[in-house]
Amino acid sequence: MSLTRKDVEHVASLARLGLSADELDMLQDQLSSILGHIEVLNQLDTEAIPPTAQVIQLENVLRPDEVRPSLPQETVVTMAPETRDGFIAVAAVMGGNDDGGAT
Amino acid sequence: MTLPADLTLMTAAEARSLLDNREISSVELTRAYLERIEEVEPAIHSYLHVMTDVALTQASDADRRIEEGDIDLLTGVPIALKDILCTIDAPTTAASKILEGYVSPYDARVVARLRDQGAVFLGKTNTDEFAMGSSTENSAYGQTHNPWDTSRVPGGSSGGSAAAIAAREAPVSLGSDTGGSVRQPAGFCGIVGLKPTYGRVSRYGLLPFASSLDQIGPFARTVEDAAIVLRSIAGKDPMDSTSVPVEVPDYLANLRQDLNGVRIGFAPQYTVSGMEPGVEAAVKVAIKQLEDLGAEIVEVSLPHTEYALATYYITAPAEASANLARYDGVRYGNRVEGDNLIDTYLQTRGRGFGPEVKRRIMLGTHALSSGYYDAYYVKAQKVRTLIKQDFDVAFQSCDVIVAPTSPTIAFEAGSRTSDPYQMYLADIFTIPANMAGIPGISVPCGFSDGMPVGLQFLGRAFDESRLLGVAHAYEQAAGWYHKLPEIPAT
Questions:
Q1: Top-level CATH class of A5-43?
Q2: Domains (ranges, CATH) in chain B?
Q3: Rounded to the nearest 5 degrees, what angle is found at the Cα of B424, between the Cα atoms of B223 and B144?
């Protein structure tokens, strides 16, 4: 199947990828071509076949809910772009502006 | 054994015995590799980060342990690590700009296991960005060159770890294999590469690409060395709930196997049009050799092989699009400040990721998006069932399957970068094992146009012992592992 420019823009927005006009053009062509190759799967009747999400037979791997030592806070925050008082600083997600936050 | 003129000519097993007999020290061995790295890196570029100081400290600690008789399989043996495995004492970038300079606060489980054993870390090796690629050309930090012909690619994504072995810049190394990223570069570089069964090795601290497919595996010059490394890193880990609590056998004790009566399957689906005649010929000779060694060659059918590539290019990007959502410039990695939070996300990810990673995030996001989920993602999961069933049936009539590792030899750098689908075809023979979760190994089986050809063996889940035994018997009889590339001076 081929994707429209609008489709590609929609997917980029879902994926939170800021793409240039050139990138969007290129991806429109390339993704359409790759999806064309993927259509080969439609040759198979899979109506009665169960899906496989993972191949190992383990289910519900549980552990006791016990307090255990973890990485020290000061170590974990070292790699964050912005920290304050030993915490990771994040932009305001509510209130500040119209489209910048969670709803 | 006698001391070789150049210590980098030894296998890890040979180095082990010389270290144990105090004929060499780990510091001497490590220095020999660091000098070799300095000599050939300008031509090869296997490493993104050489850990000189760490390695020399670890080597001298290892010498003390050996002196005290506290010796494990890899104590004092140098090893290179794909730069997608977290290390506390060197950057972990996944060859991406988005993680430039990132140092993990913890070691990957495999790294911790090697560290506890007293292994010596030579450095972090180049890869396609986030392990997405088949040539190592998608690295944000320059491409790696094939030691047999520097105008060609080393394969990928673990191209740096593979080239490092062929160029004698490390005796053993670790890579990760999601669709062939250990076996394919091993084939292209004329060395051994093993993808263990999904769940055999903990993925804790392996930056995730496609979580239901990723598996860490070793590169080495010989099957014996690959067995040593697997034994060192395998086993259940409470930090990875998909690692499986099954016993890790003594692969070394089981290595020498007689091929008499072993049933080796060959599937006609592993001969495709467009396959290089030199590859086909080398594989044919290898199969005859296996027969001469006493193996029984049986024809098996893997009818859904032709659908594996399409299945993979839905499943892997879908999982990747979810996994890579974490790189948002908030908790770690680079941030590009935007006008608001969403804009910061868009700019951080738009500038931080390279073209192939963006392509796969887009493909995966599309496959998972509302209205397409059933047609793509669920469809691929159903075909995955069929691919797995093919192997279940085939392994009822054979013990291992033999196949080419790749349809071609290493291609020229730049020759496939403009057409993503051409690049994807390089993994056509390696992807099915990841979809089924089974182990696979590539060993050298000759040359075509002066470039190495890889022979792949696939085994039953958790039957690495049989796989290693068959690969070892073939390798010792064929003897290709003695051939090493001459690297031109730069």
A1: mainly alpha
A2: 7-259+441-482 (3.90.1300.10)
A3: 60
